[in-house]
Structures are given as structure tokens and as C-alpha cells.
Amino acid sequence: xxxxxxxxxxxxxxxxxxxxxxxxxxxxxxxxxxxxxxxxxxxxxxxxxxxxxxxxxxxxxxxxxxxxxxxxxxxxxxxxxxxxxxxxxxxxxxxxxxxxxxxxxxxxxxxxxxxxxxxxxxxxxxxxxxxxxxxxxxxxxxxxxxxxxxxxxxxxxxxxxxxxxxxxxxxxxxxxxxxxxxxxxxxxxxxxxxxxxxxxxxxxxxxxxxxxxxxxxxxxxxxxxxxxxxxxxxxxxxxxxxxxxxxxxxxxxxxxxxxxxxxxxxxxxxxxxxxxxxxxxxxxxxxxxxxxxxxxxxxxxxxxxxxxxxxxxxxxxxxxxxxxxxxxxxxxxxxxxxxxxxxxxxxxxxxxxxxxxxxxxxxxxxxxxxxxxxxxxxxxxxxxxxxxxxxxxxxxxxxxxxxxxxxxxxxxxxxxxxxxxxxxxxxxxxxx
Length: 432
Prior knowledge:
Layout: H1 13-22, E1 27-29, H2 37-48, E2 56-59, H3 62-65, H4 69-78, H5 87-90, H6 92-99, E3 109-112, H7 119-127, E4 132-135, H8 149-165, E5 174-177, H9 189-205, E6 210-216, H10 221-238, E7 243-249, H11 259-276, E8 280-282, H12 295-310, H13 322-335, H14 341-351, E9 369-372, E10 378-382, H15 389-392, H16 402-409, H17 411-422, H18 427-431
Parallel strand pairs: 1-8, 2-3, 4-5, 5-6, 6-7, 7-8
Antiparallel strand pairs: 9-10
Helix pairs in contact: 2-6, 7-8, 9-10, 9-13, 10-11, 10-13, 11-12, 11-17
GO molecular function: cobalamin binding; methylaspartate mutase activity
GO biological process, one term: anaerobic L-glutamate catabolic process
InterPro entries: Cbl-dep_enz_cat, Glu_mut_E
């Protein structure tokens, strides 16, 4: 199998992560984005020099995400605040100068954005000498707006082909799925795993040879371990010839408000990554519940996560589990719809074969529901038309009230803040 994986250039994002993984090091990465080029450069340098194995992030602003580059330009001209780096409005000369002496073979940099129409972003990052980003036709569409899914598929087809063309410059472009996150919380792991694998296959179908498969930490450590094992197994089955690795996101839902609670949740995600054989972790900070974190808070999180990962040994869960069974059934059902994965994804959402709980996008069927059981595991309350009813079983289905939903949304926050607020240790939360 190893011989089938493409040889990667020394400066590639995927190659850097693979070499760190082979040394037993977890690569950690912030979610950092600052509008001012000098401040963005300082943030990247602080990340580079953190006491951890790191890669850099340029997170883009909300105007750039929706392709309103004129508004981003006006904000820059007026000195108004932006919540990220406007890579298109700045232009390639500014971005290249910002990265000069920062990005190198020992410190690759990835662009993160959240756009369903990212052609301008892909062009801007390529002209700036960058070659790594994240996204996906489903995961960068359904949670963020009302762009029709079919339009997002066309946009992402163009972007994958633009990225793949960079190989002609002697570099290996890298694309990460965001499908392992979707709404951030209350999406059962099997659907996250299926979407991550399907988006990885979509990338491969349009020319990418180096990908990462994402999974966002959810509500139960044991279920998360099963999910990562399932993701690794299904990626090996469906993407055998690609350079690939698994990237874990520290919890993306309502975050603990206390520093102790936030750090305990961060450490739990780092230990999940290290135990499960993931190669990279994208961290959150103690400020996550209240504001955009500072550079220093990001560096603190990188170092804490790296140290937490180093304290555990790899002990992968078995891939023969419920998450794998459900995810495999979802993937197979989509693949049976059409040989073109873009068309298959659109058909799958039209038919309700893929149906994201609590997602209000017009192209999502909106029939599925999830709930948290008494142990904190995410379960299906209703699978709608998804082809996993026989696997889930009628016994697990239940009616979800608005009170149940609100209580579930704050479950992680309460679980991790509770010990800090009552003066107890976080052992109970971490080992449950």
C-alpha cells in the first residue's frame, strides 16, 4: 500500500505532516486570522517558534468568505476591523511579502475560509505561492448560507482542478475536508465520517493526490475513538492511493467558559488525536467562548495540546463498530447513485440519503434528528430517509423536544465547566 502513495515534494503540506507522524509527533495548528499583514506575519512567526510541531494558518475574513472583496477592500481602507485576513483584497504581492521568510519546508501554511464560492480565494492563494487549504462542496455550503448545493459542487469542482494544476509547478497541493465538522455539534459521528470520506473522494476525482480527512471532537471520548477508527478504515478502503492523514478539530460547539474547562477539553482532543493515530490537531483556546483569541492564547493552546498528546501512547479502537457500519452504509448508498461524485452528492441530499440534523439549508431534507443518551453519546432520534434504519434500530428513536435540544447544545460546556465551577477536578469529565 505504501508504494502506491505518491512521492511528495519536501515542501509539501502533506509531506510535512506525514514525516512528523512517522516520528511520533502530533502536528498542532491554530485557527488564526488577522487582517493586518504585519500582525498576521507576527502571529505566524509565533506559531512557528512555539514549543511544538506546528503548521501555520491564515484564516480569512467573512467578507472574503462570501466573495464580497469590495467590502473587504473598503474595510481595509477605512481601518475597520475584520475577523480574518482578506487574501483577495490584499492581493498576491502583499501576501507573498507577508510570508517571506516565514513559510518554508519546516513550516507549511494553510488557508482556511468557509466559502461555497472560493474560486477567487484559490486563485489568490496560488498566486501568493501557497498550496494548502480546506473545504468541500457540502461542508462549506450547507452550514454557512443558502448557496444551492449544485452551485457549490460546480464551484468546488473548478477549485479542485485549479489546485491540482499547481502540480505542474513541482509542488503537491493539499486539500482538507471540512465534512467531519458540519454543524459543529449534534451530528452523529457516522454522518461526519461518511461526509469526510465522500468529500475526500470528490477531491480525488478532480485531481487532488494529497488530502486530509477531518473529524471534529464530539461529546463522548469512546464514541470519538470509534469514529476515528472508522474514518481511518474507510479512508484506506476508498482512497488507497492518495497521500492522506486524519486531522482532529477540538470541539466546535458551545465551548466551556472557564479556563480550566476549556483546557481540559483541549487536552482531551489532543489525547484523542494521539491515541487514535491522527496526525494533526486544530486547537481552540481559553478565550473561545467569549472572543477572538490573541496570538499568545493560540500559542499557549498549541503547547498544551502538544504536551498532552506526548503523555499518551497510541491505542487505536477497533474499526468494527457501529459508527463504521452506519458510515459505510451511507457511503455505499451515495456511490450507487452516480459515478460522478458531485452529481451523486446532490442526488443524495435530494433523496434524503444524506440529511444533516438541525441544518436549515434548503437543499437539506431536514427530517433527521439526533439526541444525547444518558452516557453522552450522540444517537439518532430519527434517521429520516437515510439508509441506516436497520442499523440504528427502532428502539433508539425518540421524540426530541425544544428543551432537549437546548440542553444538548450546552452539554459539553456544562460537563467541562462543572468541575471548575464547583472546585472539583476535571477527572470525572475526562474519564467518563
